Amino acid sequence: MRGLYLVTPDWDDTRQLLEITELALRGGATIVQYRHKTADASLRQEQAECLLALCRSYQRPFIINDHVDLCLALDADGIHVGGTDASVAQVRAAVGPGKIVGASCYGSLELARDAYRDGASYVAFGGFYPSRVKKYPVNTAPEIVAQAKTDIPLPSVVIGGMTRDNAAPLVAQRADMIAAISSIYLAGDPQSAARGFAELFAKI
After folding, report:
1. Is residue 132 a contact partner of residue 161, using CB atoms and an 8 Å limit?
2. Which residues are known catalytic residues?
3. C-beta contacts of 62-71 below 8 A and 24+ residues apart
4. Which of 64, 151, 168, 186 gives a 20 to 30 Å CA spacing to 74?
5. Closest Cα partner for 63 from 24, 107, 108, 95?
6. Would you say 172 and 194 are in contact if contact means Cβ atoms under 8 Å apart?
7. Residues 36-79: pLDDT tens digits?
8. Where would I find the beta strands (DSSP E) of 72-113?
């Protein structure tokens, strides 16, 4: 688990969503998380099925945000849970040992330690910078990445307003993955934007 961690925007246009996601995969995105907070069940099912097929064709893991039932129904590769969702322990029990389980830990090493104890596969920290998409406190200290490497034997994801330039110092602290939404989906050249993130890891 290393490189660009692509998170989808709240787009209802499935064809556009798939087109940009494929460009990002061509550019080097290594994992895709389907996140659509306002979709109804029908649209969520349709988009998740299409994205899963796309990720399978590129042999990239496909993660679903929040919806454990959908993850299991589609046999997706994993699930990501936030602080207000079901606990990591509950989700791990539901999906079994073979699925990826990611946990949002915000700016808290304590949450990350708990997630590791409860069976998480990776921990996500942020927000680090203001986002054009998500609203959240921008109060995560960059030093948490290096601290987590010392304390927690799990891959780490950094999220929140990520650009190629502002993500570079976090990669230098050994962040394993950079989560991005608008820097890819709103880019003029999504494939090139994805390649730019991937190149940060090639230099390490």
Report:
1. yes
2. 35, 104, 134
3. 62/31, 62/32, 62/34, 63/31, 63/32, 63/33, 63/34, 63/100, 63/102, 64/33, 64/34, 65/7, 65/33, 65/34, 65/35, 66/35, 68/94, 68/95, 70/44, 70/45, 71/95, 71/99
4. 186
5. 95
6. no
7. 999 999 999 999 999 999 999 999 999 999 999 999 999 999 99
8. 78-81, 100-106
Using the CB atoms, write b or e for 103-115: b if 16+ within 10 Å: bbbbbbbebbbbb
Of 55, 16, 4, nearest in space to 34 by CA:
55
**Single pTM value for the model:** 0.96
Tokens matching residue 118: 């409860």
| Residue type (1 letter), 39 | A
Domains and CATH numbers, the chain: 3-202 (3.20.20.70)
Q: How big is the CA angle at 94 (ends 134 and 73), to the nearest 5 degrees? A: 75
DSSP state of 37: T
Mean pLDDT of 169-186: 97
Cα separation, 172 vs 117, whole angstroms: 26
Which DSSP category does 75 fall into? T
3-state DSSP helix/strand/coil percent for the chain, to nearest 5?
Answer: 45, 15, 40
* Residue 109 CA: distances (Å) to CA of 27, 55, 148, 151, 163: 32, 31, 7, 8, 24
